[in-house]
Amino acid sequence: MPTYEQLQHLSPEQFRRACGVKLQTFNRLVEVLAEAKAKQKPGRPSVLSLKNQLLLTLEYLREYRTSSPSYGVVDSQSVDTATMIHQDVGVDGNKRIKGRKRHVMVDSLGIPLAVVVTAAHISDIKGLRFLLE
After folding, report:
1. Do 96 and 57 touch, CB atoms closer than 8 A?
2. Where are the alpha helices (H) located in 8-123, listed in sequence order?
3. Are 91 and 119 in contact (CB under 8 A)?
4. 109 near 121, Cβ under 8 Å?
5. Is 120 exposed, middle or buried (0-12, 13-18, 19+ CB in 10 A)?
6. In this predicted model, what pLDDT tens digit does every residue of 59-74 receive, in sequence order?
7. Staple 4 to which of 45, 51, 102, 125, CB 3.0 to 4.6 Å?
8. Spatial distance between the Cα atoms of 101 and 80, rounded to a whole number of angstroms
9. What residues does 75 pair with on adjacent strands?
């Protein structure tokens, strides 16, 4: 992803093609974000400048395309736990692992939509139900 410093020298038409918005719109968005940021409580400073944060958001919105994903991919993995942990621990009979199981759902870009950690004996179907709740 190009940074604002790399894009600021482009013509307005090239900027629009690279970012998806006109240069004037981008500058107005930066102004609005700066006003909103001035009203926030101070906290940890961001590594990215406000302009680069906006570029990253615009890039994400262009790639994501829809506000709700049309499908997701679900996977689970059993993990051993420390011997001192007794809460939510079970035995995965298929893998013979005593511990926990993590169930993860991602969208078509690999962005996590939901994550649930259960005892290892919980089946993948039940884990999917927890993910969809």
Report:
1. no
2. 12-19, 23-39, 50-64
3. no
4. no
5. buried
6. 888 776 666 666 778 8
7. 51
8. 9
9. 104
